[in-house]
Amino acid sequence: MFFRKWMNSINKDNIIRKVVKETAGGMTMALSNKNFLVFLLISSLVAGCSGIERQTEKAMKAAEVAFRDDEKQPNQEAGLIQVYLSKDFKVVEEHDNNLILQKDDKIYILFVNPNEKEDSSVLYLAIKEQQDQYVVMHSFQTDDKFGFISIKEIPKEKYELAVGIGGVKLTTETDKDQLKTDAKQMMEIVSSVPQK
To answer: How far is the C-alpha of 83 from the C-alpha of 64, rounded, in Å?
Structure first.
């Protein structure tokens, strides 16, 4: 019985070695079961990491372009806050220093600290204290304003995305594939809020 199991395992290993041969530059390489599984595991981890890295890089660039663009002017006033919102956004709740916005089924929280100016880094520094929890913490600056983007992985393959300028911050939960689009739209909203 032991002999038969041992022969079967040898035969399976040989079959897998034959099936998993790859030719690269004229060299033939065969992988054992264990090496093949390790190869697959590492490949999937690298592919997963590079996927989120690509998406976060695109989100950072989109946020920075919108930060430097600064073309949107407020078209709505809710409470004490003036803000630009495209027609697919709506205000669902308003308070003195924050608004709850909605676009489709996604919720956004806009926070405004009226005591901070556009060049303030107070909100960024508060988030930066928990930097080890974030996938991305990136800031950008001009002569008269300070902006940032932060991305944090949360359960269910979602990401908490926040963008800010000075004393204004906008936060939402989003999917990896929506990071770039959301970062751009959110920075347009944030940059439209007048700060004294």
So the answer is: 19
